[in-house]
Amino acid sequence: MSVVVFMLAFPAAAFATNCYVIAAAPGEECLVVDPGIGVLPTLQEIFREHRLRPAAVLLTHGHLDHVYSVTPVCQGETPAVVPAYVHQDDRYRLTDPITYLDPAIVAAFEQQFGAKASWTEPSEIVTLGDKESVSVAGIDLTTLHAPGHTEGSVMFGIEAVPDGIPADLDRTMITGDVIFAGSIGRTDLHGGSDAAMRRSLRDVVYPLPDTTLLLPGHGPATTMERERASNPYLRGFGA
Fold it and tell me: Which of 4, 38, 100, 149 could potentially form a cystine with 185 if both were Cys, beta carbons 3.0 to 4.6 Å apart?
C-alpha cells in the first residue's frame, strides 16, 4: 500500500521549470527536485511554513534552468551541507552549466535579471547510475536513466503518491525533461540525441504502469495512462 507523501510544486522565475519539494510529512526532512532560477524565496517560505529541512537536492539533469539554485539550497541555512544527486553522465555539467548554454540564451537571462549569470559548484555531489535505489528523508526512490534530452537525464520513481491524488494512481515518477504532458524534451541541445530519446521512450517510459503519476520538468502533471493513449511520441511502441 502506498504511503502518504507531502509534495509541493511551483514554477521557477525563468523557463517555467517545475521545482518540487517532497517529504514524508510536514515537519520532516525534505527533498528538493530541480531548484531552478529564482526559486530561493519561495523555497524558504515553504520550508518555514511547513517546518521542512532540506536533506538532499535531486537533479533530473544538468541544464541550467534545472540546477541554477542547487548550490544556495545545498549550502543554505542548515548546519550540514546538503548533497546534490545527479546521474554520473551529467556530473560534468555541474562544473559550469553556463558553458553549455547558447550565448543568446545567456544574454537573454542576463537582460531579464539584470545581472551576469554566475556559477558555483555544489561542495558535495553524489553521482547516480541506472536503477539505483536511494533512501533520503524517509523516502525511497529509484533512478531510471533515460538519456536523449541530455546524456545523464534520469527519472526518479517513488512507490507512493502525494496526499489527495486519486486512488487509481499508486506511484509517482518525476520525469524531468524526458516526457511532458503531450510532448517530450527537445534533443537539439548539447548532449541531446534523437536516437537515445527514442530508446528511452520505448524502453524506459512506455513500460511504466498506467497507474503512474507523471511529474514533468515543465508544464502540468499527467498520468502514464493518459500519455500512452494520447502522446504522439509514444505511438507505435505497443504494436
Answer: 149
